[in-house]
Specification:
By secondary structure, this protein is an all-alpha fold. Helices cover 72% and strands 0% of the residues.
Length: 145
Protein backbone atom coordinates (compact mmCIF):
# COMPACT_ATOMS: atom_id res chain seq x y z
CA UNK A 1 0.00 0.00 0.00
CA UNK A 2 1.10 3.55 -0.56
CA UNK A 3 1.62 5.92 2.31
CA UNK A 4 -1.45 7.87 1.17
CA UNK A 5 -3.75 4.87 1.37
CA UNK A 6 -2.00 3.59 4.52
CA UNK A 7 -2.83 6.87 6.25
CA UNK A 8 -6.42 6.74 5.01
CA UNK A 9 -6.84 3.16 6.27
CA UNK A 10 -5.38 4.08 9.66
CA UNK A 11 -7.72 7.06 9.92
CA UNK A 12 -10.72 4.89 9.13
CA UNK A 13 -9.66 2.20 11.60
CA UNK A 14 -9.36 4.78 14.38
CA UNK A 15 -12.93 6.04 14.01
CA UNK A 16 -15.38 5.61 16.86
CA UNK A 17 -19.17 5.45 16.68
CA UNK A 18 -19.92 8.83 18.23
CA UNK A 19 -20.84 12.19 16.74
CA UNK A 20 -17.14 13.02 16.19
CA UNK A 21 -16.74 9.68 14.41
CA UNK A 22 -19.60 10.43 12.03
CA UNK A 23 -18.13 13.85 11.27
CA UNK A 24 -14.71 12.29 10.73
CA UNK A 25 -16.05 9.59 8.43
CA UNK A 26 -17.69 12.27 6.26
CA UNK A 27 -14.50 14.38 6.26
CA UNK A 28 -12.33 11.39 5.31
CA UNK A 29 -14.65 10.49 2.45
CA UNK A 30 -14.73 14.06 1.13
CA UNK A 31 -10.91 14.39 1.33
CA UNK A 32 -10.35 11.01 -0.31
CA UNK A 33 -12.77 11.66 -3.15
CA UNK A 34 -11.50 15.24 -3.67
CA UNK A 35 -7.87 14.10 -3.89
CA UNK A 36 -8.74 11.34 -6.33
CA UNK A 37 -10.99 13.57 -8.45
CA UNK A 38 -8.32 16.28 -8.74
CA UNK A 39 -5.74 13.72 -9.82
CA UNK A 40 -8.13 12.08 -12.30
CA UNK A 41 -8.77 15.45 -13.95
CA UNK A 42 -5.08 16.20 -14.48
CA UNK A 43 -3.89 16.18 -18.08
CA UNK A 44 -2.37 12.81 -18.89
CA UNK A 45 -4.53 10.77 -16.53
CA UNK A 46 -5.85 7.82 -18.57
CA UNK A 47 -9.48 8.06 -19.66
CA UNK A 48 -10.25 4.45 -18.74
CA UNK A 49 -9.03 5.02 -15.20
CA UNK A 50 -10.89 8.33 -14.95
CA UNK A 51 -14.05 6.44 -15.89
CA UNK A 52 -13.26 3.85 -13.22
CA UNK A 53 -12.93 6.65 -10.63
CA UNK A 54 -16.34 8.00 -11.67
CA UNK A 55 -17.97 4.58 -11.34
CA UNK A 56 -16.40 4.07 -7.91
CA UNK A 57 -17.76 7.39 -6.66
CA UNK A 58 -21.21 6.60 -8.06
CA UNK A 59 -21.35 3.11 -6.59
CA UNK A 60 -19.34 3.41 -3.36
CA UNK A 61 -19.78 6.99 -2.22
CA UNK A 62 -22.04 7.88 0.68
CA UNK A 63 -21.65 11.65 1.05
CA UNK A 64 -19.65 12.24 -2.12
CA UNK A 65 -22.10 11.06 -4.75
CA UNK A 66 -22.89 13.65 -7.45
CA UNK A 67 -25.68 16.11 -6.62
CA UNK A 68 -28.46 14.70 -8.79
CA UNK A 69 -28.23 11.43 -6.85
CA UNK A 70 -29.36 10.93 -3.30
CA UNK A 71 -26.55 10.34 -0.82
CA UNK A 72 -25.71 6.70 -0.31
CA UNK A 73 -26.92 4.97 2.78
CA UNK A 74 -25.45 2.85 5.53
CA UNK A 75 -27.25 0.71 8.10
CA UNK A 76 -25.11 1.90 11.00
CA UNK A 77 -21.67 3.26 11.80
CA UNK A 78 -19.91 -0.07 11.24
CA UNK A 79 -21.59 -0.43 7.85
CA UNK A 80 -20.62 3.10 6.91
CA UNK A 81 -17.03 2.45 7.92
CA UNK A 82 -16.99 -0.79 5.87
CA UNK A 83 -18.28 1.12 2.84
CA UNK A 84 -15.62 3.79 3.28
CA UNK A 85 -12.95 1.09 3.49
CA UNK A 86 -14.28 -0.40 0.25
CA UNK A 87 -14.26 3.04 -1.44
CA UNK A 88 -10.64 3.53 -0.42
CA UNK A 89 -9.66 0.02 -1.51
CA UNK A 90 -11.26 0.48 -4.92
CA UNK A 91 -9.44 3.79 -5.41
CA UNK A 92 -6.23 2.13 -4.27
CA UNK A 93 -6.67 -0.55 -6.95
CA UNK A 94 -7.01 2.18 -9.60
CA UNK A 95 -3.84 3.87 -8.36
CA UNK A 96 -1.91 0.61 -8.45
CA UNK A 97 -2.76 0.56 -12.15
CA UNK A 98 -1.69 4.20 -12.52
CA UNK A 99 1.68 3.30 -10.96
CA UNK A 100 2.02 0.15 -13.06
CA UNK A 101 1.66 2.20 -16.25
CA UNK A 102 4.58 4.42 -15.20
CA UNK A 103 2.97 7.63 -16.35
CA UNK A 104 5.09 10.76 -15.94
CA UNK A 105 4.10 12.87 -12.92
CA UNK A 106 1.71 10.20 -11.62
CA UNK A 107 2.22 7.50 -9.02
CA UNK A 108 0.24 5.27 -6.72
CA UNK A 109 -0.70 8.37 -4.70
CA UNK A 110 -3.46 10.68 -5.91
CA UNK A 111 -1.61 13.69 -4.50
CA UNK A 112 1.49 13.14 -6.67
CA UNK A 113 0.59 15.42 -9.61
CA UNK A 114 -0.21 18.36 -7.34
CA UNK A 115 2.98 17.74 -5.35
CA UNK A 116 4.96 17.69 -8.61
CA UNK A 117 3.39 20.97 -9.68
CA UNK A 118 4.18 22.54 -6.30
CA UNK A 119 7.79 21.34 -6.56
CA UNK A 120 8.04 22.82 -10.07
CA UNK A 121 6.84 26.18 -8.74
CA UNK A 122 9.29 26.05 -5.85
CA UNK A 123 12.18 25.25 -8.21
CA UNK A 124 11.20 28.09 -10.52
CA UNK A 125 11.05 30.50 -7.60
CA UNK A 126 14.42 29.27 -6.30
CA UNK A 127 15.95 29.90 -9.72
CA UNK A 128 14.41 33.36 -9.90
CA UNK A 129 15.69 34.16 -6.41
CA UNK A 130 19.18 33.02 -7.38
CA UNK A 131 19.05 35.32 -10.42
CA UNK A 132 17.87 38.25 -8.32
CA UNK A 133 20.60 37.57 -5.78
CA UNK A 134 23.29 37.50 -8.47
CA UNK A 135 21.94 40.63 -10.08
CA UNK A 136 21.87 42.36 -6.69
CA UNK A 137 25.51 41.40 -6.08
CA UNK A 138 26.80 42.02 -9.62
CA UNK A 139 24.97 45.21 -10.49
CA UNK A 140 26.91 47.45 -8.07
CA UNK A 141 30.17 45.94 -9.30
CA UNK A 142 29.21 46.43 -12.95
CA UNK A 143 28.21 50.03 -12.34
CA UNK A 144 31.63 50.84 -10.93
CA UNK A 145 33.39 49.62 -14.08
Amino acid sequence: MTAYFDRTSASIAALTADSAGYDAIRDIEFRLVRDVRVCAEMPGFPDDLRNAVDVIVLTRGIYSRPRPLQPGDADDFADHRRKLVRLSEDFHTVFHEVARRGLPRFSDSPTCPVSCMAADGENRQDNMAAGVYLLDKLLPWLLTK
